[in-house]
Amino acid sequence: MVAAPRELRILLAGPRGFCAGVDRAVLIVEKALERFGAPVFVRHEIVHNRFVVESLETKGAVFVDELDQAPDDRPIVFSAHGVPKSVPTEAQRRNMIYVDATCPLVSKVHREAERHHREGRHVVLIGHAGHPEVVGTMGQLPAGAMTLVETVDDVARLDFSPDLPLAHATQTTLSVDETADILAALRTRYPDIQSPKKEDICYATTNRQAAAKKIAQQADAVFVIGAPNSSNSKRLVDVANQAGCAKAMLIQRAHDIDWSYLDGVRTLGITAGASAPEVLVTEVIEACGKHFDVTVEEVVTAVEDVEFKLPRVLVA
After folding, report:
1. Phi, psi of 68 (to 5 degrees)
2. What Å distances lie between residue 150 and 5, 48, 260, CA to CA?
3. Any residues with CB less than 8 A from the CB of 264 and at least 6 apart, and which?
4. Is the torsion defined by CA of 84, 88, 89, 90 positive or negative?
5. 151-201, pLDDT tens digit by residue?
6. How far apart are CA 98 and CA 100, in angstroms?
7. Is the pLDDT of residue 4 over 70?
8. Among 200, 205, 207, which Cα is nearest to 126's?
9. What pLDDT score does 2 carry?
10. Which of 133, 150, 178, 307 is an active site residue?
11. What is the pLDDT of residue 22?
12. Averaged over 71-99, what is the pLDDT?
């Protein structure tokens, strides 16, 4: 007699997966292909997810690292993470058709940084060195006009003159809790530092972290579906750990699952980073169903209804 499969309760975080900025960026590439035909070039991954990138490649998108790898006579799309000012300037010089898919919430950070610079303030950017969003944000201002800090220890090493006017900005995909500690350290050292009018960490990052925290508090293990180079996905793993779930791991697809990881696990939390499509969540749940007797409960902590408009060049 074959033993019945073990029961596994899945807590599915809501919200999860694609945010409005990612939805818009992917749609921009698809609309550009419709309007201009293939190939359409894309500078860097449009969002940090190989499944999404490979899906767009099958439709005629060509991903390149830098502008000089794209021809002058084909359209190019800039990724959702944003680009330094030098990139569209060079595209204009070459008379290229370019479409900017930068998330509007990242663009908001760019505009704030420019405003502070115009008003004579030095900008302290909280973020991860080398991340495309950080590279793009720092590239909005002249060299030396912005300083990057990644940790509380970095804040302790700052040596700004007491009379230097300061402002801070934040990468949009950081851990809310860790960023709060860095901000507290900045404000302790520089009480007059100017803050954004509205929090830079985006609503989608905040909402996904709150939902991940909720399921982690009830789960024996948590799967975060996302890419290893996705900042917001990696932060979800951190959030789950900090909420008390020691077994939290990042996976890209169902085939990444080591099923022995779920030995002794009765309740599994599942969430997805903002650049992971829902089809990958479904794939993981279906894979679990082949190994366990699965029940799925959705844990909703927020409802999102944000939509961003497409660039004029694609709707004219």
Report:
1. -70, -5
2. 46, 21, 35
3. 220
4. positive
5. 999 999 999 998 999 999 999 999 898 899 999 999 999 999 999 988 888
6. 7
7. no
8. 200
9. 54
10. 133
11. 96
12. 97
Q: How far apart are CA 39 and CA 32, in angstroms?
A: 9
- The reply to whether 133 belongs to the active site is yes
Q: Please say whether the beta carbons of 98 and 91 come within 8 A.
A: yes
**Tokens at 208, concatenated:** 């996904």
Residues 6 or more apart from 75 whose CB is under 8 A from it?
A: 32, 36, 40, 41, 96, 97, 98, 99
Residue 1 scores a pLDDT above 60: no
Q: How many residues does this entry show for the chain?
A: 316
Count, in order, helices (H) and strands (E) of the chain: 11, 12
Q: Closest by alpha carbon to 288, among 42, 79, 9?
A: 9
Residue type, 205: T
DSSP code of 255?
Answer: G
β-pair partners for 8: 294
With helix as H, strand as E and coil as C, how does 71-134 read?
Answer: CCCCCEEECCCCCCCHHHHHHHHCCCCEEECCCHHHHHHHHHHHHHHHCCCEEEEECCCCCHHH
- pLDDT, averaged across the chain: 96
- What residues contact residue 279 under an 8 Å CB cut-off, 6+ apart? 51
Tokens at 302, concatenated: 């927020």
Q: Which of 175, 177, 199, 204 is nearest to 47 (CA)?
A: 204
The pair of structure tokens assigned to 301 is 């902590």
Instruction: Tell the burial category of 79 from Cβ atoms under 10 Å away from its Cβ (0-12, 13-18, 19+).
Output: buried
Whole-angstrom Cα distance, residue 163 to residue 281?
51
* The one-letter amino acid at 231: S
Does 3 score more than 70 pLDDT? no
Residue 294's SS3 state is strand
